[in-house]
Please model this.
Amino acid sequence: MTRSLSRTDNLIHQFDTVLRTLVPHAAAPSRPSPATPEIHDEPLSDAERRHAAGLMRINHTGEVCAQALYQGQGCTAKLPEVRDQMEQAAQEEIDHLAWCDTRLQELHDRPSLLNPLFYAASFSLGATAGAVGDRISLGFVAATEEQVGHHLEAHLVKLPPGDQRSRAVLRQMAIDEAHHAQLALEAGGARFPAPVKLGMKLMSKVMTTSVYRL
Model:
């Protein structure tokens, strides 16, 4: 028999998720990194290394936001199957978080100092969307994942030509994010109108601009 979790158990689980998300090197992936030992970078100049690190820091913070978003939505989602879907997607986002963290270490850099701030903001957005209704919550997931996919495609172009390991990570992340968006829509997520998506794009611009160096 499966024991149902008490309120205390849930609080401990939520706190553990926060720690694994915000503490550097704490996230444990369930899948190996796409940047396998067989993939090697070409020599990178110091400027190229810093640029690649800046892009990977943005992607790392994006995964921090995704974790907070799914956690907030999971707390307020009405239907059990929606909560289960949020948890499954969050596990794959943990993989992305760990892969980006490892890549930052390889580039001799660090995650953003602003991660706690963006985590709190994203959790609030997720909880609010979940409280409004599962259709809106799932639609928010789909719109967010579509936007993340656009960022990843842009970063694949912006990466230094010799940075093959970051490129391998971003390619797999793009595949996963597209799958998450598709699942959210198939589960009944609302398709957000263009003005709403534009507002989300402007908000993400604040994150990407500030996190690139901080």
Residues 46-76 form the longest helix (31 residues). Helices lie at 7-22, 46-76, 80-106, 115-132, 134-158, 164-186, 194-211.
